[in-house]
What does this fold into?
Amino acid sequence: MDLVGVVVTALWAMGPAYVPNNAAVLAGGGRPIDGGRTMGGSRLLGDGKTWRGTAAGTVAGTALALAMNELAPTVGDVLGYSLPRFPLLAGVGLALGAMLGDIGASFLKRRSGRERGAAFPGLDQLDFVVGALLLALVVAPGWFLATFTRPVLVAILVVTPLLHVVTNGIAYLLGLKNEPW
Ligand code: CTP
Ligand code: MG
Ligand code: K
It folds into this structure.
């Protein structure tokens, strides 16, 4: 596969992992997952990780995976590449994994004294990627190994942080997010 094909495959395969965090921003609110509990004087996760945001993000990412399955033949034809399809488990794994990665990052941020919304460069851009890839590997290992070849994984690790910075910057400018990260 050529370089463009690798990048296109990487972006397509990670679509269901890219959407959950943005859906959570739109749908967030309500009860925090940690119920206000603290650990060592700081919140376990903080008010930025809610049940509603997590559920909405997981549903949005899974729904996108199913919609992308319908679009794959047409889009693949237009682009000239064979695009990956998402078995249901792979879609759920990517979407829920992205949310869990983001939640894990908040846990680490609170442990290191960072308040809700504080930046943690590197972690902010890759937490959801690592979570999505790990959970997809666990729940859909055959699909994972067939889809995420080494070049595709490298492309994901390079392109995702760029994409994350751009989309969060846009969400900030639109007033949807309190910070541009
Ligand atoms: N959100 C949510 N549930 C999640 C993730 C996000 O409700 N599991 C919503 C919250 O309203 C959150 C917003 O999306 O404030 C932005 O997400 P994020 O930047 O991840 O949270 P922060 O508020 O910055 O908190 P943290 O410092 O813990 O990342
Ligand atoms: Mg934030
Ligand atoms: K985050």
User: Anything to note?
Assistant: The first helix runs from residue 3 to 27. The CA atoms of residues 46 and 116 lie 6 Å apart. The pocket of potassium ion (ligand 3) is lined by residues 102, 105, 124 (CB under 6 Å). The helical segments are 3-27, 51-79, 88-111, 123-139, 141-147, 150-173.
